[in-house]
Every structure is written in C-alpha cells, then in structure tokens.
Amino acid sequence: MDPSLVSLVIQIAAVGLLVAVLQTVLEQAGKGEWAMAVTVGGLIVVMYSLVELISGLFDAVRAMVQF
After folding, report:
1. pTM confidence score
2. What is the domain range of residue 60?
C-alpha cells in the first residue's frame, strides 16, 4: 500500500475519534448545538481530504486514457 494512503486513513480515524470524544463531552455538558457543530466540522474536514484524493484519482485516470 501507498504510505500516503495509510497516512490518510490514520488521519481520518484520528479526526473521527476526536470528534466522537468532543461530541460526547459536549452532549454531557448540555451543549447539543456545539456537539452538532463539531460533528459537521469533522465531516467537512474528512470530506475535504477525500475530495483531494478523488481529484488525484481522476487526474491519474485522465493521464492513463490520453495518449
């Protein structure tokens, strides 16, 4: 496997764990709105990382198809 891909998977897992902990703490403190904001923020960070990866995939496919 590509080391950058493994790094990306670990980064996504770390963001997920951090969001889960923060959401739990904020829910217990009665700050449900902030918990939702943290969840949405974590989702945006992960989606941005995936969009960059998918963009690179499309560029590689485009380069392979063109002669």
Report:
1. 0.78
2. 3-65
Q: What is the CA angle 61-66-67, rounded to 5?
A: 135
2-37: b or e for each residue (b if 16 or more CB lie within 10 Å)?
eeeeeebeeeeeebeeebeebbeebeeeeeeeebee
d(CA 43, CA 66): 34
Q: Please check whether residue 12 is in contact with residue 49, taking contact to mean a CB–CB distance below 8 angstroms.
A: yes
Q: How many CA atoms lie within 13 A of 24 on its CB side?
A: 6
35 within 8 A of 23, measured Cβ to Cβ: yes
Structure confidence by residue, pLDDT tens digits, 20-41 = 999 999 999 999 999 999 999 9
How many domains does the chain divide into? 1
